[in-house]
Design a protein that fits this description.
alpha/beta; Serine Threonine Protein Phosphatase 5, Tetratricopeptide repeat; DNA Cyclobutane Dipyrimidine Photolyase, subunit A, domain 3; two-stranded parallel sheet; 19 helices; 7 strands; FAD; mRNA binding; DNA binding; Rossmann-like_a/b/a_fold; FAD binding
């Protein structure tokens, strides 16, 4: 499965940022075997992802752009089109950008630094909506996008404010006939789309710019589907008839649908508009972290783990590094449940979430690898995980806001606790269970956690602690580099047993998970250095050598089948009532 993926008084979390972030900076963290020692992080040193340098990543990106460029493309439109970049911060395989180019004589790419995203709070519990780590990652994505647009004859206009206020003003200034953007599926994003559309309706293009008088006087918002591997129009059923069981969905799309090829690029996407930019303040500037009101905290943990580098070049570089340079794709299925090091899984998820990487590009590279090297269960399993990502995106469209509600899509009635002390012990990695604490400290320090780790900490919070699953989901929303609402809340509803598929209702035994996936305690000792002096067999079971356990486990993990179906008859009545 993909990564995890009545209001109480706000909890004020702390969050970390690397004190020296890389100059460039899964939910698809795609591992039962331990990673090789060569791929493990060194104690006290952070590992950049990708590990290749900026020059090599740039060369990889240039080659990918060349393979996806066609000199035969022609544009037939007139006037000016605006491209509203959101969670699609890439040039390669960006259908909104290509449609804008084809329908115009000039293109203006725009990004709005929305205060509701960068300075807002989560819905129920008031955590920061975007933590410092993800904000820094997005800043780097914007810088890289700006450079790649310049190479294609354009630039990126950056303005601070709400899109529904900024975009109509820009459209009026440059005389745009359309604003192109990728369609989102969750309510907050859909509301902004509605507000932008209404704002554009009030704009009348009277003169100037390159407006075509045959076009309607008001610019239109043109929403394009482009966030999934399988296009929504190619599904063998309507979204409202989407199966509630993933396997049924997967088998249907694999047998009846095809993944479209990546869109081809013209040699140049320019020019930008020739007039109108001065009256809106020029191209603007990409924000710095401090200007967003986010704190930089120097802490020892921030020097450990992985540093993900933001941007399309880094994303394409990581695909090249993992598939072709390190040749890890052929063993992905065997290593995907790992927890330590950069190469037990693909680590594509932060770039997928920001839209710096197209899922169709990954699919194309998998197929190319299968032709040139090997096709096996591991190569297929990367696509299997991408289909999970698609599934959660389509589910968010089918079920709407119910994925954010306490009862989930099935409106399950349960009794949950919102005990702040218990939640904070989980959040801060102070539960007394090394496997939980190590994963939560990795999340705070890096913005990332393995797929296996996400399932374990989710199960502990909701099953053992009985804490409202939305508190965990919103904390992940704050921290994760790879946060997107559909995948995050989709995974949490599954983990809490309130998802659309009632069969997805599992309990993860911490002792069993530790023995299976961290048998020598290397992972917990990395994040909890006080355990390193213990013999390997005791690191996950340190007893009095570690902090006191905050609560007892609900079930004796030593006698449970691995990841067994959660036994409804044994659930305490005060925790879960179905």
């Amino acid at each position: 499965m993909l990564h995890f993926l009545s209001p109480s008084s706000p909890l004020r979390p702390r969050f970390l940022l690397f004190s020296n972030p890389p100059a460039n900076l899964s939910f698809l963290a795609m591992s039962a075997a331990a990673p090789s020692s060569s791929s493990r992080p060194v104690r006290g040193a952070a590992v950049p992802v990708p590990s290749i340098g900026a020059d090599e990543a740039g060369a990889v990106a240039e080659e990918a752009f060349k393979r996806h460029t066609s000199p035969n493309l022609r544009r037939s439109g007139a006037g000016v089109a605006v491209v509203w970049f959101r969670n699609d911060l890439r040039v390669l395989d960006n259908d909104a950008l290509l449609r804008a180019w084809a329908s115009s004589e000039a293109v203006l790419p725009v990004y709005c630094v929305d205060p509701r995203v960068f300075a807002g709070n989560t819905h129920y519990f008031g955590f920061p909506k975007t933590g410092a780590l993800r904000a820094q990652f997005l800043i780097e994505c914007l810088g890289d996008l700006k450079q790649n647009l310049r190479k294609k004859g354009l630039d990126l206009l950056v303005q601070h404010g709400k899109p529904e206020e900024i975009l109509p003003a820009i459209a009026k200034s440059v005389g745009a006939h359309s604003v192109y953007a990728h369609k989102e599926t969750c309510s907050e994003e859909i509301l902004v789309e509605h507000l932008v559309s209404k704002g554009l309706e009030r704009v009348v293009i009277t003169q100037g710019g390159a407006s075509d008088q045959r076009k309607p006087p008001s610019p239109k918002l043109q929403l394009i589907w482009g966030t999934t591997m399988y296009h929504i129009d190619d599904l063998p059923f309507t979204v409202n008839n989407l199966p509630d069981v993933y396997t049924q969905f997967r088998k249907a799309v694999e047998s009846k649908s095809s993944v479209r090829n990546c869109s081809k690029l013209p040699p140049s996407l320019g020019p930008p508009p020739s007039s109108g930019l001065d009256e809106i303040g020029g191209w603007g500037t990409i924000p710095r972290l401090e200007s967003l009101g986010l704190n930089v905290t120097k802490a020892g943990l921030s020097e450990k783990g992985m540093h993900f580098i933001g941007g399309e070049n880094a994303a394409l570089g990581r695909v090249h590094e993992y598939f072709w340079k390190k040749d890890q794709l052929k063993v992905y299925k065997e290593t995907r449940n790992g927890m330590l090091g950069p190469d037990y899984s693909t680590k594509f998820s932060p770039w997928l979430a920001s839209g710096s990487l197209s899922p169709r590009y990954i699919c194309e590279e998998v197929k190319r690898y299968e032709k040139q090297r090997v096709a096996n269960d591991s190569t297929y399993w990367v696509l299997f995980e991408l289909i999970w990502r698609d599934y959660f995106r389509f589910l968010s469209k089918k079920y709407g806001n119910s994925i954010f509600h306490i009862g989930g899509p099935r409106k399950v009635i349960s009794k949950w606790s919102q005990d702040q002390a218990l939640f904070e012990s989980w959040r801060d990695g102070r539960t007394g269970y090394p496997l939980i604490d190590a994963n939560m400290r990795e999340l705070s320090a890096t913005g990332f956690m393995s797929n296996r780790g996400r399932q374990i900490v989710c199960s502990f919070l909701v099953r053992d602690m009985g804490i409202d699953w939305r508190m965990g989901a919103e904390w992940f929303e704050t921290c994760l580099l790879d946060y997107d609402p559909a995948s995050n809340y989709g995974n949490w509803t599954y983990g809490a047993g309130v998802g659309n598929d009632p069969r997805e209702d599992r309990y993860f035994s911490i002792p069993k998970q530790a023995k299976t996936y961290d048998p020598e305690g290397e992972y917990v000792a990395y994040w909890l250095p006080e355990l390193r002096s213990l013999v390997k067999e005791r690191r996950n079971f340190p007893g009095a050598s570690y902090i006191r356990q905050i609560i007892p486990l609900k079930f004796d993990g030593g006698h449970q089948k691995k990841d067994q179906q959660f036994n409804r008859q044994r659930r305490p009545n005060h925790m879960y009532r179905r």
